[in-house]
Write a structure and sequence with these properties.
- The complex is a heterodimer of chains A (428) and B (526).
- Chain A is of the alpha/beta class.
- Chain A folds into three domains: 164 residues, Rossmann fold, CATH 3.40.50; 122 residues, Nitrogenase molybdenum iron protein domain (Rossmann fold, 3-Layer(aba) Sandwich), CATH 3.40.50; 96 residues, Nitrogenase molybdenum iron protein domain (Rossmann fold).
- Helices cover 47% and strands 15% of the residues of chain A.
- In chain A, the strands form three sheets. Chain A has a six-stranded parallel sheet, with helices on both faces. In chain A, strands 3-2-4-5 form a four-stranded parallel sheet, with helices on both faces. Chain A has a four-stranded parallel sheet with strand order 7-6-8-9, with helices on both faces.
- The longest helix of chain A has 26 residues.
- Chain A is globular.
- Chain A starts with a helix and ends with a helix.
- Chain B is of the alpha/beta class.
- Chain B has four domains: 118 residues, 3-Layer(aba) Sandwich (Rossmann fold); 99 residues, Nitrogenase molybdenum iron protein domain (Rossmann fold), CATH 3.40.50.1980; 142 residues, Rossmann fold, CATH 3.40.50.1980; 50 residues, Helicase, Ruva Protein, domain 3, CATH 1.10.8.550.
- Chain B is built from 22 helices and 16 strands.
- In chain B, the strands form four sheets. In chain B, strands 12-11-10-13-14 form a five-stranded parallel sheet, with helices on both faces. Chain B has a four-stranded parallel sheet with strand order 3-2-4-5, with helices on both faces. Chain B has a four-stranded parallel sheet with strand order 7-6-8-9, sandwiched between helices.
- In chain B, helix 1 crosses helix 7, helix 7 runs parallel beside helix 10 and helix 21 crosses helix 22.
- At the A-B interface, helix 3, strand 3, helix 4, helix 5 and helix 6 of A face strand 1, helix 2, helix 4, helix 5 and helix 16 of B.
């Protein structure tokens, strides 16, 4: 441990926040391109064009290609030898490919040019291309670029860089007006639930980023209060602040406690008293508690380890420990933004083994030694660990399921209870 | 740049991974950025393997690009060796690493590891997955056996009298289409005629097993895409003949056995064949009569495409209207086959080109890969999968070979299933206004659901993509003719529309009437 780390450790202990162990080595994670798999469904009028290699195309179709698409909403412009050797003008090539995409899909309103490892290593300037193409298709198609390379981004960070690229395009909010901006992809049903709470509390207008149609970007400015629904949005949050928005500090809306705290943060900003929030949420909270009680019976006392994947690990671990009675063995996250996690870290036990980064082989050694009841890990590791007799919960499902809010608290817990129930059921 | 909605093959390092994952006691170190570990999922999820593939990645990130990525390569190799103690280490690069040129193979060779180190050249921007697997297998076989090549002119040892001949099965691999069961089926097949299997590789083999390859009398090249280079080399260096017929389909299986007989000197007709197939009878039974002349489009790797065309034409009585492959390396075999069936060969790895050809030909059945399922969905055409790339549902739990006699049984069921069954097809043609059974409904044996006007979609795609004049210039459809066209069963309607338009155009007919429609029908005989 370096001197700096030791110092930080001492400083952290003083205020009761768990220490962070930094680890480096082989990382078993997705790159940000994987974000396209859910973003293309959320933003229905957008098309994602990755500029990269055959590997990038292969990743996307391995992840999403099990669904059969009549009209795919993403594609890859695969770099050829000619592009690398400088024999072809990459920008001309890109213009040609974009024209082909837009001819096939005239309904597309927003085209994302998505940067990859190869495009970044050869320093292909996609932002210039996006600017130029926006001009060419002016009025019809907005062209936006962002990086989702493995060099720069880990899994859900691909959504961060995508939303971050949309922020400069957002219109300016009218002078003197205010609004709440909820940031981070939420399933439509959850979004609607939150909207109803905000409406009853008298908070509004409420906008969501990303919107369901990229052509309908919400406004932003000095009157905007930002509530992050997802923990992996560091850059987007900073960019929104740059545009004058105020970031509300809150836990993430996972579990009853998190959702209450999250709604309360907005209520505070609108000067709504705690009692009113309690009143408005009482029925939903009671319902969630009833639902959670069943799952708690299955989960209480069980030991759980998290391998790094999505940055959702910390808030979910907090939920499982405080509301489901689970014991946290190790919680690892690919990246820890202390500022965004402030409210969360305070709710975690101060002696928690919290890891940022990964050295997968060493981490697996620890899992094998700890033998937790459940290990949360990616699909590259899940079946191999199952074969070693360890129960696992594959982590990617957590970004593909409605898990936020009161009415999903029991569903979230159930995702972790299910492998245990299944393990007990199977007699073969 | 090439616009790719779906790609038929992964990059070549995936081929190298398939090789490593097929075998035991091998470890592959890949110089690759963070995120390229997605490839592990192909093995743990799509193929449902219970172990991680034997691959370590350097997983470099942007912050490491400024510093010493070469050092990172060396650390990763050393750690992988220390932990897994493989008997051979292979070292390669992914596409991004190829750009930064750390020469990981050369670095590894300079590290003094106590086991053979095989550096792989995998040009990611010009070559693809199967090439990567083929090259890796060849380099491995050559690397391990080079020192055992007999001196030129030395005689091959004769098989002891009475001993059964032995064959190597080369080519089956991890993530290959139905390789697991094909090996079982071919082993049974060979056993039935008195031939033993010596080594199966790469699937399930260790480097030590590869050393035993020369002990066999001949090699069976089951998947030329993976093993043809290695087989050619073994033939040249060790004098082992190669059986080149791939036993997919009844006819091909018979030819395969004759080739084995010729090479080994076994009297095949004298051998009682305990294995048989139901397929020939199923295909001859009257229930299959309606399959006659069904128009089928085939696109796959070359091996499976060529085999499928023969089965379709000779064993099921379909009409092959299109035949293609994404495997350029094997284009010649496919061209020959296309000539046999009188169709234009389609050699391309461009998904959009395949889609355009299917739309143009308007087949009644598409036999292809996972990618053709997207095309078939868009055009509303029944589809069955015959080749990689495939997804999880095509790594089934049940015994599901494509090769040999049981393979033929599996193929019969799989290909006929997506087609509408005979009685339903007749009734839909006769009565068009049924609320439950109608054009827009999926065949009722495939469960509920509608096609969402898929036939119309297919028609409009045919219109748009062929660029033939329809409404604007030249020919137009009279409303009654358009109505009459709708009475033609959906699966041949697209073809009928195109034929009629062609017929009208050739004769300078401006407006297509009901009469024109039937004139065209009489002219084209369908």
């Amino acid at each position: 441990m370096s001197g700096v780390d030791a110092q930080r450790r001492a400083g952290a202990e003083a205020c009761g926040v768990p220490n962070v162990n930094r680890e480096r080595g082989q990382r078993q994670v997705f790159c940000g391109l994987a974000g396209i798999v859910w973003l293309h469904r959320k933003i229905q009028d957008a098309f994602f064009l990755v500029v990269g290699s055959r590997t990038c195309a292969h990743l996307l179709q391995s992840a999403a290609g099990v669904m059969i698409f009549a009209e795919p909403r993403f594609a890859t412009a695969i770099l050829q030898e000619r592009d690398l050797a400088g024999l072809a003008d990459c920008h001309k090539e890109l213009d040609r490919v974009v024209a082909e995409v837009l001819e096939r899909r005239p309904d597309i309103k927003t085209l994302f040019l998505v940067g990859s490892c190869p495009s970044e290593v050869i320093k292909l300037d996609l932002s210039k291309a996006a600017e130029r193409l926006s001009g060419v298709y002016g009025g019809r198609v907005r062209v936006v670029d962002y990086s989702a390379s493995g060099l720069e981004t880990t899994f859900t960070q691909g959504e961060d860089t995508c939303l971050n690229a949309l922020v400069p395009q957002m219109p300016v909010i009218a002078d003197g007006s205010r609004s709440l901006l909820v940031v981070g992809t939420l399933p439509d049903v959850v979004e609607d639930q939150f909207s109803r709470f905000f409406q009853e509390l008298g908070i509004g207008p409420v906008h969501y980023l990303p919107p369901r149609q990229a052509s309908e970007l919400p406004p932003v400015g000095n009157g905007t209060s930002v509530l992050l629904a997802q923990p992996f949005l560091s850059e987007t949050a900073r960019m929104l602040q740059k545009r004058g928005a105020t970031l509300l500090s809150a836990p993430f809306p996972l579990g009853i406690e998190g959702t209450l705290g999250w709604l309360q943060a907005a209520a505070d900003a609108w000067g709504i008293p705690e009692e009113r929030v309690k009143e408005v949420t009482a029925a939903a909270v009671a319902r969630a508690e009833r639902g959670l009680a069943r799952q708690r019976e299955l989960l209480a006392g069980k030991r759980i380890s998290f391998l790094p994947d999505s940055q959702l690990e910390v808030p979910i671990a907090r939920f499982l420990q405080r509301e489901c009675g689970m014991e946290l063995v190790e919680v690892a996250t690919p990246f820890l933004d202390r500022q965004l996690m402030e409210a969360e870290l305070g709710l975690l036990p101060s002696d928690l083994r919290l890891t940022e980064g990964q050295d997968v082989e060493r981490q697996l050694d620890r899992v094998r030694e700890d033998r937790p009841d459940i290990t949360v890990c990616g699909l590259g590791l899940a079946n191999p660990l199952e074969a070693e007799g360890l129960r696992t919960k594959w982590s990617i499902e957590l970004v593909f399921s409605p898990i936020h809010g009161f009415d999903q608290a029991a569903d979230l817990a159930e995702l972790f209870a299910r492998p245990l129930v299944r393990g007990a059921l199977l007699q073969v | 740049m090439q616009l790719t909605l779906w790609s038929y093959e992964g990059p070549p390092h995936i081929g190298a991974m398939r090789l490593a994952a097929s075998m035991k006691g091998l470890h592959l170190v890949l110089h690759a950025p963070q995120g390229d570990t997605y490839a592990d999922l192909l093995f743990t999820m799509i193929e449902r393997r219970p172990q991680r593939p034997p691959v370590s990645y350097t997983t470099f990130q942007a912050r490491e690009l400024g510093s010493d990525t070469a050092e990172l390569v060396k650390t990763t190799i050393q750690q992988a060796y220390d932990r897994f103690k493989p008997s051979v280490v292979m070292v390669g690069e992914s596409c991004t690493a190829e750009l930064i040129q750390d020469q990981p193979g050369a670095l590894a060779q300079g590290m003094g590891l106590p086991v053979p180190v095989l550096p792989l050249e995998l040009p990611a921007y010009t070559r693809k997955e199967n090439w990567g697997a083929n090259e890796t297998f060849y380099q491995l076989v050559r690397g391990l056996l080079r020192s055992r090549v007999p001196a030129p002119g030395s005689e091959r040892e004769l098989r002891a009298a009475g001993a059964r001949p032995k064959a190597n099965l080369l080519g089956p691999s991890s993530l290959g289409f139905r390789c697991r069961d094909d090996v079982v089926e071919v082993t049974r097949l060979l056993d039935g005629v008195g031939v033993d299997v010596n080594v199966v590789a790469p699937l399930g083999a260790s480097p030590e097993d590869l050393l035993r390859i020369p002990e066999a009398d001949f090699n069976v090249c089951l998947y030329p895409e993976i093993a043809d280079q290695a087989c050619n080399w073994l033939e040249r260096m060790f004098g082992q003949p190669t059986v080149k017929t791939v036993p997919i389909g009844i006819g091909a299986t018979r030819d395969f056995l004759s080739e084995v007989a010729r090479i080994t000197g076994i009297e095949i007709d004298a051998t009682e064949q305990p294995i048989w197939s139901r397929m020939p009878w199923y295909s001859r039974s009257v229930d299959s009569t309606y399959l006659t002349g069904k128009r089928v489009f085939i696109f796959a790797d070359a091996t499976h495409a060529v085999a499928a065309a023969r089965i379709a034409a000779e064993e099921l009585g379909f009409t092959v209207v299109g035949l293609g492959t994404y495997a350029r390396e094997f284009a010649r075999d496919l061209r020959d086959a296309a000539k046999r069936y009188g169709v234009e060969p389609l050699i391309t790895d461009d998904y959009l080109e395949v889609e355009a050809r299917v739309a143009e030909l308007q087949p009644e059945l598409v036999l292809g890969t996972q990618m053709e399922r997207h095309i078939a969905k868009r055009l509303g055409i029944p589809c069955a999968v015959i080749s990689a790339p495939v997804h999880i549902q095509d790594f089934p739990s049940r015994y599901a070979p494509q090769m040999g006699y049981e393979g033929a049984n599996v193929i019969f069921d799989t290909w006929v299933h997506p087609l509408m069954m005979g009685l339903e097809e007749h009734l839909i043609t006769m009565f068009r206004e049924d609320f439950e059974f109608h054009d827009a409904a999926t065949p009722s044996h495939l469960g509920p659901g509608t096609r969402k006007s898929a036939p119309e979609q297919a028609e409009s795609a045919a219109k748009g993509e062929t660029g033939e004049p329809t409404d604007d210039a030249g020919t137009i459809w009279a409303p009654e003719a358009e109505q009459e066209l709708k009475k033609i069963p959906f699966f041949v309607r697209g073809k009928a529309r195109r034929n009629t338009e062609r017929f009208a155009e050739e004769r300078g007919i401006q407006t297509i009437t009901v009469e024109t429609l039937y004139d065209a029908k009489a002219h084209f005989g369908r």
